[in-house]
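Aim 2, interim progress: modelling of the 2-phosphoglycolic acid-bound target.
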Amino acid sequence: MTRRPFIAGNWKMHTTPVEARDLARALREALAGVESVDVAVFPPFLSVAATIQELAGSNIDVGVQNVYWEPKGAFTGEVSAAMAYTVGCVWTLLGHSERRQFFEETDASVRRKLEACLQIGLKAVVCVGETLLERETGKTFDIIQRQVTVALKELPERAFNDLVIAYEPVWAIGTGKTASPDQAEEVHAFIRRWIASLNGSRAATDVRILYGGSVKADNIASLLEMPNIDGALVGGASLTAEQFVPIVTAAQSPRKPQ
Ligand code: PGA
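Predicted structure of the complex, ligand included:
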C-alpha cells in the first residue's frame, strides 16, 4: 500500500494571531492546488482561532502543540484535547522533544494524553527521538523502543488511523544538522518493525512515520525517497511560505523505490 505523504509545520512559540493569519493566508493561496499531500500547521494556542478561521474550507488542517488529558477542571494553564477538538483542531503534537526537555513530559504522560485524544477523535503526532549523547553511546534503538512501547503498546489497530509517529533526533532539531536519509531510514524501519511486533503488521503497514529535524526544501526530496519516510515535521522552515511551500510540493510526487 502507499501511505499518503504528510507535511506538518510546527510553529512552536512563534506568531501572534495577526502573524499567524498572514502566514496561514499565504499558505492557503500557495497550496490551493495540492491534493496528494496531507498538510497541517501547529500554531501556538493563542493563534489557533485566527489560523482556523483563515484556513476554513482549505486543504490545510490545524493542530495544537500539546494538550492535557483531563477534559476540564482545576488544571491552571492547561488546555484539554476535548477543547482543541471542539474549536476545530484536527491534530495535536504529543511528546515533542522540547516538551520532554523543558516541561517534564514523560513517556507515561504522552501515553495518557494519547488515550484522551483517541477517545475524542483528536488525531495525534507522537514524537520520539534520541539525544546526541544517547546516539553517541549506542542507545538510540533502546530509547526509541522504550518511547514507542510506552506510547503504543496494546492500542487497537483502529488507533493507527488517528495517529502518526514523528522521529525527531534531538541533535537535529534547530541545529541545521539533518540526519542523513540513511540514518533516518534506519530508525524509521526499526520503528515500523517494532510496531509490527507490538500492534500487528496491519498497524505497521498503515502508520505514517514522519522525519523531523532541520528539514528544508533542499533536503526533503532525498528523505522522502526512503521507503519508510512518509513525510516531515518541519520547525524553522515552516515559518515562512517561501520555505514551507516547496517542502509540501516536493512531497506531491515522492520518488520511492518500487
Ligand atoms: P526544526 O524543528 O525543523 O527547526 O529542526 C523540527 C521540530 O522541532 O519539530
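The mean pLDDT is 96. The pocket of 2-phosphoglycolic acid is lined by residues 10, 168, 173-174, 212-215, 233-237 (CB under 6 Å).
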